[in-house]
Amino acid sequence: MVSDDKVAVVNGKIITEFDFHNALQGFAMEMHRKPMEQLSVEELEEIRALAMEKLVARELIYQEALAEGVVAADDAVSAEIDKVIANFPSEEEFYATLAKAGIQPIAYYRMLRQDLTVNLMSEKKLAQVAEPAEAEILETYRRHPEKMKKPGRARACHILVKAPPGDREEALVKIRRIKEQATADNFADLAREHSQCPSAQRGGDLGYFHRGDMVKPFSDAAFSQQVGAVGDIVETPFGVHLIRVLDHEPDSSLSLEEARPSIRRFLKETAGAQLLKQWVEDLRRRADIEILQA
């Protein structure tokens, strides 16, 4: 049972074991895609340090926000709660889940208000980040040509025969029969007749897509097949496919003007992260912090 015992005190404000446990679970899922209880000793030690650092920083920013009169509005908190409730079958189910976790509705409201207030204060601080200078944008463009690329695309059409898990033989028999008939000339007609994908009405045409937009077996086939040819049968979690590639576009270099928006965004985000890090370090130096559980 997670308690309300204190694990840290920041300028007299208590961080509870409950808060620490929630932060640990969040990092476990974010970093390792599994519950905290399934982590190795090394993984748990790693996220314990991160969770405590995050909680202390959050409390410091929240206190700074209150000192400057920055507080999330009630309607903003209510709207955020409504968004969370929308993920549950009903409002009753949401509050039942809170109760099962030992969280009172008013405590949940306060937690959300604190999170939103921290976000508001962080955004206020980030507003101080200046626009990157033109010379900095140009230098970044020149120093990282390998990143200034427009990824290649493929355009393909396909015929999908769905297959239930563990029983794909019938689908394979059907797709093999279709493959025996398929040519570049009649592929679209066969897709309209046989494909079980919504793209069937377009002759199976999926339009252009990048690597990673499709599941890996499909993407690998689409980017390796010869343009115009009907490829071998491809199996994916969706079923079995025949693919005909219509076009390949190779990777290409971005011009400075094409790359400018992403370079600008990258430089601002980098500067913002550094600003927030330095700001929190300054807050920590001025604060009275007692860590009771590491």
Automatic annotation (TrEMBL):
Q: Which UniProt keywords apply?
A: Isomerase, Rotamase
Gene Ontology molecular function: isomerase activity
> Does this entry carry the keyword Isomerase?
yes
Tell me the InterPro entries matching this sequence.
PPIase_dom_sf, PPIase_PpiC, PPIase_PpiC_CS, PrsA_foldase, Trigger_fact/SurA_dom_sf
Pfam families assigned to the protein according to its UniProt record, in alphabetical order: Rotamase_3, SurA_N_3
Ranges for domain PpiC = 151-247
Record keyword Isomerase present: yes
UniProt protein name:
Peptidylprolyl isomerase
